[in-house]
């Protein structure tokens, strides 16, 4: 019988087992040793050897990339495989002990077959993979259009809310359908051809350009689609929650909230019924992301625009591809930047372009602007912040005249006052979301949630504070109280002073600095029983002159505090104890203590045990969710009521003058039924406040008359405190005192349900007064106020070099 040998080409050195150096990468590089000849097969083993050799030929082609661990060392596969004759076993590879692993001869054909099948499978997959198609640009265009349409409709629907009707309301089905989210969205789209208002197309265009910019930057169509889709989905969900809670859409200023290190706190702002929506959105986004990843691998077209950066000038094809990519990136980004930068200027090209689509800005009402013109336009419109336009007549001479005018006013006031503000410790308490729930239309309880604070208000200077927000706006109330500046005087594009204005200011004048000037920098301290990076407080407070900022996570860390029952946030009682522990006594210097609580922050998820307000709830015409939220909120108010009364009792034991300014920053956003009536909106922006002095203070029993205290806004608090304490004032506080007498309260246009885009002004009876109906003196002082505010915040600080801020 003829014998068959594996005969390598003449240029290859034969090695044991029939492997040649050409079959491996590096096993025998440089090896010139002549190996022993391969064993000669006998006729009886010819068939077995033929099968084994067939299997080896397949394996040996891939053996160069294989490594085995032998005696703890990584080595190349040694050529030790051989056949045996006459039924001997076939040693293949190595065993655990470094010796050849033995397989029975009968398994060799099966092993060879399996190896052959696996190689055929790999070859088949490789062939299919190499022949996978490049998806058509027509397909990309279809996906582009569908994704842009979906994004536009999703974020637009996020600014609409389902209407609520009283149980006995007679509303026909057609009206209900038209006022539903789908109905409002349908009107927004169909007005394009019914009334020739093209806001839908304008938003579609803006989002299409954003999508195109992402594609041009990433240059991978499916990756860019995944990024764009996920961002749009997150925006839509976040906008829906913010509209539900605060009645305003997502703004560019909200991005500062995230970049300020607050990303981990986002979940605390999700409403009670929103977690399931978040889970559903995450599940769908996971499916969407997986689909985009799969399409990216299945699409043989790697780059959307062929680009050649390694050899950019190798030929016309390279140059054209690179120029196309650069043009796409620059044109989309430059357009978006220029459009956004100029949009807030009425005579700019972008404003005229938007107007040609029917855009009608409602800067004073972000929610209304988003619903009418689209959230994409609202976001861009407020992205470029021009805090305040330069008032007519602003110059150094005008500011010197103002400083002199109110220096005379201060002298007049101080002639009848005996003390100084800095003789007392002042504790400014912002009580998160505190308000009287029984003032809300439709909300009532058979038990008073705040009897102690109600009694305190009856015995001291107190009333209602007009807020700039509903369901939010804490930082703006805080900013007004500390600076005396009014958000109503800024442009509507400035929505959060702590995030859009203060970080850019070189110098900020705040009232606590009066205590620093007299007692040193340690006189000012701040306490916030949450994180220090919220609204950039950590950096802003340093700029304000607070030497210590006590929080749950900052340099000065609060310990030993916990929530009540199952609540999320630190109790007011523990917050107050933190303040008391750092309070000076006796002859120690006076202090300024800034306090921001968190106990009553939303959500209101049935936190408290033994909540008697579930049984005491006598509210009418509320939804089940409103009932549940109001009951939990009322119990939280009662806890605040008890803790605040206890705080004042302890302060009465302090042998040093202490004055407390206590106020709720805004109402909680849990009253959609009441808010749906425009007549209720103003009242839903009025929270409770009082100014109280302890037994060691000369003003312990002071109470300002109602016409001087019943209505106010937080920018007047320090002027009112000076009046309550019979303390001397600076020219600035003299101006605020006179301004408060002319216009007791002011806020941004959104604080009124019947606003025409003008700031909201209240008289001493709490009635709204149109700007044109103000007295000539009030209008003159408003002009002075704008000049003062411009100079102190964005102007040249002429007043800083005068005695305008110094008590006389």
Distance between the termini: 125 Å
Instruction: Sum up the overall morphology in one term.
Output: globular
* Low-pLDDT residue intervals, each spanning 5 or more residues: 1-49, 54-93
Question: Roughly what fraction of the amino acids lie in strands?
Answer: 5-15%
- Please tell me the overall pLDDT: 85
CATH superfamily of the largest domain: Alkaline Phosphatase, subunit A
At CATH level 3, the topology of the largest domain is Alkaline Phosphatase, subunit A
**Quick one: biggest sheet?**
9 strands, mixed
Number of helices: 28
**Radius of gyration, whole Å:** 38 Å
- Main sheet: which strands, in order across? 10-9-8-11-6-12-13-7-14
Q: Quickly give the structural class.
A: alpha/beta
Question: How many separate structural domains?
Answer: 3
Number of strands: 18
Known CATH architecture of the largest domain: 3-Layer(aba) Sandwich
Helix content: 40-55%
Tell me the name of the CATH class of the largest domain: Alpha Beta
Seen as an oligomer or otherwise, the chain set is: single chain
What report would you give on this structure?
InterPro entries: Alkaline_phosphatase_core_sf, Sulfatase_N. Residues 1-55 are annotated as: Disordered. It is a single chain. The chain has 3 domains: 16-130, no CATH class; 137-162 and 175-381, no CATH class; 421-729, Alkaline Phosphatase, subunit A, CATH 3.40.720.10. 45% of the residues lie in helices and 9% in strands. It starts with 45 loop residues before the first helix and ends in a 15-residue tail after the last helix. The strands form 5 sheets. The chain has a 9-stranded mixed β-sheet, sandwiched between helices. The protein has a 3-stranded antiparallel β-sheet with strand order 16-17-18, with no helix packed on it. The chain is an alpha/beta fold. Helix 4 packs across helix 5. It has 28 helices and 18 strands. The protein is globular and about 105 Å long. Strand 8 (524-528), helix 19 (537-544) and strand 9 form a beta-alpha-beta unit.
């Amino acid at each position: 019988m003829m014998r068959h040998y594996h005969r390598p080409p003449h240029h290859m050195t034969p090695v044991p087992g029939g492997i040649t150096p050409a079959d491996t990468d590096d096993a025998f590089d440089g090896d010139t040793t002549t190996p022993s000849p391969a064993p000669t097969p006998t006729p009886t083993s010819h068939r077995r050897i033929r099968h084994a050799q067939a299997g080896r030929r397949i394996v040996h082609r891939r053996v160069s990339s294989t490594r085995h661990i032998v005696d703890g060392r990584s080595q190349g596969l040694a050529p030790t495989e051989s056949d045996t004759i006459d039924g001997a076993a076939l040693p293949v590879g190595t065993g655990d002990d470094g010796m050849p692993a033995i397989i029975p001869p009968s398994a060799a054909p099966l092993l060879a077959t399996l190896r052959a099948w696996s190689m055929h499978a790999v070859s088949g997959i490789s062939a299919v993979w190499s022949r996978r198609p490049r998806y058509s640009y027509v397909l990309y265009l279809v996906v582009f259009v569908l994704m842009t349409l979906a994004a536009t409709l999703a974020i637009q629907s996020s600014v609409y809310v389902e209407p609520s009707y009283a149980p006995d309301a007679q509303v026909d089905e057609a009206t209900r359908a038209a006022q539903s989210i789908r109905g409002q969205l349908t009107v927004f789209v169909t007005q394009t051809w019914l009334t020739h208002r093209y806001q839908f197309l304008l938003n579609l265009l803006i989002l299409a350009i954003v999508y195109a910019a992402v594609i041009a930057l990433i240059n991978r169509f499916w990756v860019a689609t995944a990024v764009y889709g996920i961002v749009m989905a997150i925006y839509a969900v976040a906008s829906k929650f913010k509209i539900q809670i605060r009645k305003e859409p997502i703004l560019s200023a909200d991005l500062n909230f995230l970049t300020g290190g607050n990303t981990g706190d986002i979940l605390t702002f999700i409403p009670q019924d929103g977690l399931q929506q978040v889970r559903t959105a995450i599940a769908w986004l996971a499916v969407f992301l997986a689909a985009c990843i799969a399409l990216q691998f299945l699409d043989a077209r790697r780059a959307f625009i062929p680009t050649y950066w390694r050899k950019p000038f190798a030929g016309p094809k390279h140059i054209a591809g690179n120029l196309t990519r650069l043009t796409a990136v620059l044109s989309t980004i430059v357009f978006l930047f220029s459009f956004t930068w100029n949009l807030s200027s009425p005579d700019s090209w972008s404003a005229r372009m938007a107007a040609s689509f029917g855009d009608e800005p409602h800067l004073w009402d972000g929610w209304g602007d988003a619903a009418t013109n689209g959230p994409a336009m609202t976001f861009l419109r407020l992205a470029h912040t021009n805090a305040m336009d330069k008032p007519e007549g602003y110059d150094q001479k005008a500011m010197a005249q103002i400083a002199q005018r109110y220096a005379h006013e201060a002298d007049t006031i101080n002639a009848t006052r005996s003390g100084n503000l800095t003789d007392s410790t002042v504790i400014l308490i912002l009580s998160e979301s505190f308000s009287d729930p029984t003032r809300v239309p439709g909300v009532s309880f058979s038990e008073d949630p705040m009897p102690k604070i109600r009694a305190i208000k009856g015995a001291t200077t107190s009333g209602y504070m007009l807020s700039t927000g509903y369901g939010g706006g804490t930082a703006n109330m805080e900013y007004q109280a500390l600076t005396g500046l009014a958000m109503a005087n800024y442009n509507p594009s400035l929505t959060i002073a702590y995030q859009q204005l203060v970080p850019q200011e070189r110098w900020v004048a705040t009232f606590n600095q009066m205590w620093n000037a007299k007692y040193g920098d340690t006189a000012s301290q701040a306490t916030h029983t949450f994180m220090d990076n919220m609204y950039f407080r950590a950096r802003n407070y340093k700029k304000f002159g607070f030497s210590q900022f006590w929080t749950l996570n900052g340099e000065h860390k609060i310990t030993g505090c916990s929530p009540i029952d199952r609540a999320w946030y630190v109790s007011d009682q523990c917050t107050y104890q933190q303040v008391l522990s750092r309070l000076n006594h006796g002859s120690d210097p006076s202090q300024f203590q800034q306090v921001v609580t968190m106990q009553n922050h939303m959500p209101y998820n049935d936190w408290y045990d033994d909540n008697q307000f579930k049984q005491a709830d006598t509210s009418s015409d509320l939804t089940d969710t409103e009932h549940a939220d109001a009951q939990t909120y009322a119990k939280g108010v009662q806890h605040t009521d008890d803790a605040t009364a206890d705080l004042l009792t302890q302060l009465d034991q302090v042998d040093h003058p202490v004055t407390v300014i206590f106020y709720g920053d805004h109402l909680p956003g849990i009253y959609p039924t009441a808010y749906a009536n425009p007549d209720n909106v103003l009242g839903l922006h009025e929270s409770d406040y009082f100014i109280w002095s302890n037994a060691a203070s000369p003003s312990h029993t002071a109470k300002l008359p109602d016409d001087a205290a019943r209505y106010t806004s937080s920018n007047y608090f320090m002027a009112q405190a000076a009046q309550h304490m019979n303390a001397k004032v600076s020219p600035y506080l003299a101006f605020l005192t006179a301004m408060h007498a002319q216009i007791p309260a002011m806020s941004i246009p959104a604080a009124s349900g019947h606003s025409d885009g003008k700031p909201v002004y209240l008289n001493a009876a709490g009635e709204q007064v149109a700007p044109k109906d103000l007295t000539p003196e009030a209008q003159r002082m408003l002009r002075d106020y704008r000049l003062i505010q411009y100079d102190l915040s964005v102007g040249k600080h002429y007043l800083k070099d005068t005695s305008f801020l110094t008590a006389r």
